[in-house]
Specification:
Number of strands: 10
Radius of gyration: 19 Å
Structural class: alpha+beta
Number of helices: 7
Shape: globular
Low-confidence stretches: none
Largest sheet: 6 strands, mixed
Strand order of the largest sheet: 6-3-7-8-10-9
Order of helices and strands: EEEHEEHHHEHEEHHEE
Distance between the termini: 25 Å
CATH class of one domain: Alpha Beta
CATH topology of one domain: Rossmann fold
Length: 249
């Protein structure tokens, strides 16, 4: 199966100055790698501030100061998007790639299925058949693992601006390999049992202005060891395959 979208080593920073005019850099995206297979739906999940929406905005070239993309490659249907002039990106937005914001009631008709509306948009802009429209690809950004389980074929789990695990939903949710994915799923199960949302895992995400060396999840990880002070490898597991960024995957 071919990938309609490929993102490699994507970095986005927020660059600003403090009260004494010193430059401050928040490393919001830190080497995002993800793929969207043609004709499939990918769900991106993670805590608030993990970089989910920022990843999509960076892909679309919709960043506003002080945010800036400082590295990485973005390829859509075989064409590189990073570095394209704004005029070229504008031609692609709405025709080859688009965004439905987090308040979909302002963009979508609540009386019709979301998938049908996406197909209509594709057909209107690209002048393709209904079958061809379904062969594109969709990314859903959400906190709700239930939405991903119901509607998505694949999932990418983000933590502190990095994809820590990506693969088929059926594999990642049944046998999560990254400690953060495991904690996220346990949290969702606890929240469902309690009838509401629940914060987890304990502690808080790292300071984007002062990220730790090595694995970004190590300060919160119950499995962390000395080796976690070095950058974790990306390993391939399962038949999906599932890509996991962890020393112990």
């Amino acid at each position: 199966m071919t990938d309609i979208l490929k993102v490699r080593d994507l970095h986005t920073h927020f660059v600003s100055r403090n009260a004494v005019n010193e430059i401050r850099v928040a490393r919001a995206l830190n080497g995002v790698d993800l793929t969207l297979p043609r004709g499939r739906i990918l769900g991106i999940v993670g805590e608030t501030g993990a970089g989910k929406s920022l990843t999509v905005q960076t892909i679309l070239g919709l960043l506003k100061p002080p945010a800036r993309r400082v590295g990485g490659e973005i390829e859509l249907d075989g064409r590189r998007l990073d570095g394209l002039p704004e005029k070229e990106l504008n031609r692609l937005r709405g025709s080859s790639i688009g965004l439905v914001v987090q308040s979909p009631v302002t963009s979508l008709d609540p009386r019709a299925k979301v998938g049908e509306q996406i197909v209509r948009l594709q057909r209107a802009h690209r002048q393709v058949s209904r079958g061809e429209a379904w062969k594109r690809g969709v990314i859903i950004v959400t906190h709700d693992l239930g939405v991903v389980a119901q509607y998505c074929a694949d999932v990418a789990v983000m933590y502190s601006g990095t994809v820590v695990e990506q693969g088929p939903v059926a594999e990642v949710f049944v046998e999560p390999r990254h400690p953060y994915t495991q904690a996220l799923i346990r949290a969702a199960d606890l929240a469902a049992a309690a009838g509401g949302r629940r914060a987890l895992p304990p502690s808080t995400p790292p300071d984007l202005y002062d990220l730790p060396e090595g694995c970004l999840f190590a300060p919160r990880c119950p499995k962390a060891e000395a080796v976690c002070s070095t950058p974790p490898p990306v390993v391939e597991r399962g038949s999906g395959p599932v890509l996991v960024r962890c020393h112990f995957a």
